[in-house]
Write a structure and sequence with these properties.
Layout lengths: L1 H31 L6 H12 L1 H20 L7 H14 L7 H17 L1 H17 L3 H17 L1 H4 L3 H6 L6 H16 L9 H6 L6 H14 L5 H13 L8 H12 L5 H14 L6 H12 L5 H9 L1 H4 L6 H14 L8 H17 L14 H4 L25
Helix pairs in contact: 1-3, 4-5, 5-6, 5-7, 6-7, 7-10, 10-12, 13-14, 13-15, 14-16, 15-16, 15-17, 16-19, 19-20
Subcellular location: Chromosome; Cytoplasm; Nucleus
Keywords: Cell cycle, Cell division, Chromosome, Cytoplasm, DNA condensation, Mitosis, Nucleus, Phosphoprotein
Organism: Stichopus japonicus (Sea cucumber)
Length: about 400
């Protein structure tokens, strides 16, 4: 229906319009041979040469088709308009109409109705996403995902608030649903129909999906995304922040696999410098030892230049207290080991000083704020025994004189 209106009918209208325009042009050419011409005729000739008349006609025809789609096909007093309430009733009462084939046909038909009219789309989007999340049959959810992808392509502004629900299907139990969701999101993002936001971390977790085919598709998506300027660099801080969040509970080995793959796309020195500073600041907000270790791992994945290493040293205060953890300290020492080749001779003293400070904070294992405070008593001092005082001695005044109590 939509293809017929938007393609075939619109093309036919344009063809007829071109024929009419051609006939008008012939008549005007005949009129040009006469000796008298008016200002309006000259203005008409100018518009014809610039193609304004044809463009205006095309716009009018497109608007005519759009109005038919919006108000007359599925919303008007016709057969299709009468069927819509029936479909909505069936889908809104899955317990009463539990037949899987009926539910599948109804959901697909409703999605096609929504593709025609933005009014119908907006009215039933909530119902369609409810079907996507609650219907137990995987094939219905998989088909609904594809339909939502088409709706997003046609009416992106209407579906934009529901985007998080679309990303959530990447965690679906069904492999088919996860695969369709990944393919739909890949198509929408790479064609700039969906903005890349924080939910992109859901796409990143697909890199470690148990299904090898899905993991390969996810890697292909990020490979294609890396060709779009600074796209990977722009999303890296959000991905790291979300995947390292203790509430997410992503295993450490999977975190490393994902970030090791993504950091391979960060090649520019300026990008590395900026990420060093951003990651260092994240240490202050880390809520667990594991999160600090994962941030240190991310820093170790970057390629360091003299400038980026200086950034790392300038932000020492952000992660100094985390250096007491051996794993965090080991990641920083590995950074220094890799960076020895890029250090300029004039920065050698600074490099050695930075290395010494890392070791110092690792050995102390206390926050920087406590560096100037009174040292804590050692274990031997705390366990030193009190002076022996016999029970028959008693303090009698402030000068600590003692008397022997005789009985």
């Amino acid at each position: 229906m939509l293809m017929h209106l938007d393609v075939y009918l619109l093309t036919e209208l344009k063809r007829r319009n071109n024929i009419m325009e051609g006939e008008k042009n012939k008549d005007k050419k005949k009129g040009r041979n006469t000796t008298t011409t008016s200002d309006s005729a000259e203005q008409g000739d100018i518009e014809d040469e610039m193609g304004l008349t044809g463009a205006t006609a095309d716009d009018a025809e497109a608007e005519f088709i759009r109005k038919i789609c919006d108000t007359e096909i599925v919303n008007g007093p016709n057969l299709l308009g009468a069927i819509e309430p029936l479909m909505v009733h069936i889908l809104s009462n899955p317990n009463k109409y539990s037949d899987p084939s009926l539910q599948a046909s109804s959901s697909l038909a409703l999605a096609k109705f929504m593709l025609v009219s933005p009014e119908t789309c907006e009215k039933h989007l909530q119902l369609l996403f409810t079907i996507l999340e609650r219907v137990p049959q995987p094939h219905i959810r998989a088909n609904t995902i594809i339909a939502i992808g088409d709706l997003t392509f046609r009416f992106p502004n209407l579906t934009e608030p529901w985007t998080p629900h679309l990303y959530a299907r990447l965690r679906d139990d069904s492999v088919l649903v996860r695969k369709n969701t990944l393919l739909v999101l890949t198509h929408l993002i790479l064609n700039d129909m969906v903005k890349v936001k924080g939910q992109i971390s859901e796409m990143a977790t697909c890199i470690v999906d148990s299904e090898e085919r899905l993991a390969a598709l996810a890697k292909m998506f990020f490979f294609e995304l890396s060709k779009k300027g600074n796209a990977i660099y722009n999303i890296m801080p959000d991905i790291i922040s979300r995947l390292s969040d203790p509430d997410i509970g992503l295993p450490e080995d999977q975190f490393k696999i994902i970030l090791r793959y993504l950091f391979a796309f960060i090649q520019k020195d300026r990008q590395a410098e900026s990420l060093v500073e951003k990651l260092c600041h994240r240490f202050r907000a880390s809520r667990s030892e594991q999160q600090s270790r994962e941030l240190a791992f991310c820093l170790s994945m970057l390629n360091y230049s003299d400038k980026s290493l200086r950034k790392l040293q300038e932000n020492l205060a952000c992660y100094a207290e985390k250096l007491s953890d051996k794993e965090v300290y080991d990641y920083f020492t590995s950074i220094l080991s890799k960076s020895k080749k890029v250090i300029k001779q004039e920065s050698k003293a600074l490099f050695d000083d930075f290395q010494a400070k890392l070791l110092e904070f690792h050995q102390k294992g206390v926050p920087m704020k406590q560096q100037q405070t009174r040292p804590v008593k050692s274990r031997q001092q705390r366990l030193r025994p009190l002076p022996y005082r016999p029970k028959h001695l008693k303090i009698v005044n402030s000068e600590c004189k003692s008397i022997i109590c005789s009985r």
